[in-house]
TrEMBL record:
Superkingdom, natural source: Bacteria
GO cellular component, one term: periplasmic space
Main location: periplasm
PROSITE patterns tied to this protein: PROKAR_LIPOPROTEIN
Ranges that cross the membrane: none
Organism: Bacillus sonorensis L12
Similarity-based family: Belongs to the bacterial solute-binding protein SsuA/TauA family.
Keyword Phosphoprotein attributed: no
Protein name: ABC transporter substrate-binding protein YtlA
Keywords: Signal
Localization: Periplasm
Length: 330
């Protein structure tokens, strides 16, 4: 009888613990990403490997297709956090925002686009672009500015030496090239590799390799959100850092299998090769800290493209305290 009594007590206690734990509702975070790309693999790893969930966060991810639309979602409170090019925070600040957008965690540290040629070539040289039609990215966006930065380094004037097309909406650039527009196009993975496999084009160069380290894509939020939800931002950043470490210690094949649900229409082999490309050129940031040297390089590229409204200090629009705390304590 005594044994039965203790069994009942133990069972009741276990049930109470399970109910109590189950009653702790995960905190919802609305995240807007500028595009869906293998370039953001660490983010998808944080989702698929439950790093967000283990931090008590329920991250609702939506793709907003373009820097302008992503920033609109953030400014209109349609999203809590945005994953987008760091330059957007500078543009918003230049317009006199009363609630500035703060970069608090870096995800990628190089350009993520590749130069895709329509015609197959055995020996590519940048000179081959002269006189050709180049289907570029949105004016004022990091892909286009980094692209122009590289072209100038290669002795090509984007305004004189090529027929530069910038009038096509970000989401429609791949379809436009596939339908016959342009001799060259600037694309993210896995789209570049998909086109190569389908015979639509050939990857001939990497803008990421050529442009060097840049705080290309970061997680950002309104200053008021970070002030009110600092603990949430810290949990979020910790999950991202765990994902960054995970991808460093796992193979591209393992990473491809982990993020397959985010790219259900893409073959695993394409995902694997795309991830490997990014790993080889060190596109994935190894930690979420956005340092001042990278920030200044970003503004140098913006200035050379004629898109820098005014110099903005690292201290004003970058919060490194959260990322530094996460990396120090992990």
């Amino acid at each position: 009888m005594k044994r039965f009594f203790f069994m009942i007590v133990s069972f009741t206690l276990m049930l109470f613990i399970l109910v109590a734990c189950g009653g702790q509702k995960a905190e919802k975070v609305r995240l807007a990403e500028v595009t869906r790309s293998v370039f953001y693999t660490p983010l998808y790893i944080a989702i698929s490997e439950d790093f967000f969930k283990k931090e008590g966060l329920d991250v609702e991810l939506k793709t907003t297709w373009g820097g302008d639309k992503t920033m609109t979602a953030l400014l209109s409170n349609g999203a809590d956090i945005a994953l987008v090019g760091s330059e957007t925070s500078i543009y918003v600040n230049a317009q006199g925002a009363s609630d500035p957008i703060i970069n608090f965690a870096q995800l990628t540290q190089t350009d993520g686009t590749f130069l895709v040629a329509r015609e197959k070539t055995d020996h590519f040289s940048w000179e081959q672009l002269k006189g050709k039609t180049f289907l570029g990215q949105r004016k004022g966006g990091m892909p286009q500015m980094a692209g122009e930065f590289v072209l100038k380094q290669k002795g090509i004037d984007p305004k004189k030496d090529i027929d530069l097309i910038q009038t096509i909406d970000f989401a429609n650039i791949p379809n436009s090239f596939a339908s016959g527009t342009g001799d060259y196009v600037q694309l993210f993975e896995p789209q570049a590799s998909i086109f190569e496999k389908e015979g639509i084009g050939r990857i001939v160069a990497s803008f990421g390799k050529e442009s060097g380290r840049i705080p290309y894509t970061t997680f950002m939020a309104k200053a008021s959100y970070l002030k009110k939800n600092e603990a949430t931002a810290e949990k979020f950043t910790r999950a991202i850092y765990k994902a960054q470490q995970w991808i460093e210690s796992h193979s591209s094949k393992e990473a491809a299998l982990s993020i397959q649900d985010q790219f259900k229409d893409t073959e695993p082999s394409i995902l694997e090769s795309s991830i490997e490309r990014y790993k080889q050129q060190k596109s994935f940031a190894q930690n979420p800290i956005l340092d001042e040297k990278e920030w200044n390089q970003l503004q140098t590229i913006m200035d050379e493209a004629g898109e820098l409204p005014k110099y903005t200090s690292h201290q004003k629009l970058v919060n490194t305290k959260i990322a530094e705390k996460v990396t120090k304590n992990h």
